[in-house]
């Protein structure tokens, strides 16, 4: 079975578990007045589940490409080691670390670190431009979310006493 089918099979299993939660557990604790609403908190997860399951089943049961010639831009799954898997896995690890460090370290420091280190992993070497751009981009995003949208984001670490 091709790599895309294996990935679709894994996504299908995840969607089945997510669908079970969406259809049977999310709405269990709804108060009676909300049970008469047309749209419940589980409506969007239910729609996502159904669409994802349909897409995954189409890929898993779909017609195989066989031994067709690769077109420009296609990934050759038999030669995965020729691609830059180290960079991709490093970026995935960076995303997980960023998500874990967002609350204890604060939005500004963790976002600047994530953007800077990720850019270095991808090959950026002009540090003179990199740091000011990441600081400016982080500041703009923080301002828009905090001030314009009114959503509180802890800008600095706990130990600096930034409230919340």
What brief labels describe this structure?
0% strand, 164 residues, mainly alpha, 5 helices, flat
The number of helices is 5
> What is the share of helical residues?
55-70%
Give the ordered list of helices and strands. HHHHH
Average the pLDDT over all residues and give the rounded result.
Answer: 84
Radius of gyration: 22 Å
- The shape, in one word, is flat
What structural class results from the helix and strand content? mainly alpha
In oligomeric terms, what are we looking at?
single chain
Low-confidence stretches: none
The largest sheet, given as strand count, sense and whether it forms a barrel, is: none
The N- and C-terminal alpha carbons lie at a distance of 50 Å
Please give the number of β-strands: 0
Tell me the β content.
Answer: under 5%
Tell me about this structure.
- It is built from five helices and no strands.
- It is flat, with a radius of gyration of 22 Å.
- It is mostly helical.
- The model has no long low-confidence stretch (mean pLDDT 84).
- The longest helix has 23 residues, at 3-25.
- Helix 3 runs antiparallel to helix 4.
Structure summary:
With about 160 residues, the protein is mostly helical. It has helices at about 5-25, 45-60, 85-105, 105-120, 125-150. The chain starts with a helix and ends in a 16-residue tail after the last helix.
Secondary-structure map with pairings?
Elements: H1 3-25, H2 43-61, H3 85-105, H4 107-122, H5 127-148
Helix pairs in contact: 1-2, 3-4, 4-5
Transmembrane segments: 7-26, 38-62, 83-101, 107-123, 130-153
InterPro entries: DUF1468
Protein name: Tripartite tricarboxylate transporter TctB family protein
């Amino acid at each position: 079975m091709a790599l895309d089918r294996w990935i679709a099979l894994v996504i299908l299993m995840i969607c089945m578990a997510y669908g079970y939660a969406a259809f049977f557990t999310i709405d269990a604790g709804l108060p009676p007045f909300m049970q008469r609403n047309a749209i419940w908190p589980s409506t969007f997860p239910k729609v996502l589940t159904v669409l994802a399951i349909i897409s995954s089943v189409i890929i898993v049961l779909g017609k195989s490409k066989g031994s067709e010639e690769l077109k420009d831009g296609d990934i050759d799954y038999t030669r995965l080691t020729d691609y830059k898997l180290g960079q991709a896995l490093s970026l995935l690890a960076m995303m997980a670390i960023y998500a874990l460090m967002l609350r204890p370290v604060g939005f500004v420091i963790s976002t600047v670190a994530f953007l800077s280190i990720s850019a270095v992993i991808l090959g950026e070497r002009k540090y003179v431009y990199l740091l000011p751009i990441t600081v400016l981009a982080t500041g703009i995003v923080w301002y828009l979310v905090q001030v314009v949208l009114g959503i509180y984001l802890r800008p600095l670490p706990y130990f600096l006493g930034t409230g919340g």
